[in-house]
Amino acid sequence: MNDFKSVGIGYDYVMEHYKDARQLDYYTERTLKKGLSEAEKFFVNYYFEKTDDILDVGTGCGRFAIAAFEHGFTKMYGIDMNLRFIERAIEISNQNKYDIKFSHQNAERTTFKDRTFKSAIFTSGGFSQIPGNENKLTVLKEMYRIMKFGGIFILAVVDENLVREKYPAYSRMINEFRRSESWKANDFYDENDVYIYDGGYMHFATIQETKDLILRSGFELLCNVTAKDILKSNDPNSSNVSRFFILKK
Question: What's the domain range around 18?
Fold first, then answer.
């Protein structure tokens, strides 16, 4: 088992939030009812093959991995730092007799061998909850290590402009958090780190900031798009605050 405590104080904020039983209930319901968003359907159909070994990073209770399996992708793997979430994902998968391999792992240093996966995805804003850019870069480099040459990694990053556009209340919360410099008092890394709800942590990276991390990781950036860019309208099954970066090894 990975030693999660060694990766930095910032993770304490993230993990404490997800210990709340309400979070387990929320992500269980998303797994059982949400399925794939329209944008995710587009991406997996366009970039992934049904026979690919696919890794769902930050799987939570297995929402994407299970929905993708039901969509015909039968070699699904899912990892998450939250043991209770992984246990619930295994429970749901077993109840449906799905052959999905879930494991309790830290994406910064997985147990997978080099060049294991042809495809991978990190969706639902999980990447934006990794504290500090150096930790984010470590995750990207680990994904590069375990992916096959030519493989595609779909990375979803929460876009601050989309958040402000869709959720004015969050916009006011962000402004207040930064104005009070609470991010300094709470040992966050920079002013782009905020509490957004019930103590939940999020980092709102600029497009250029994410591009710089991708460049340092070794991946080739094919494009970055929003759900609206590809669907020509908002995604009815998504919060529509993510920007998707399509990476190739």
Answer: 4-248
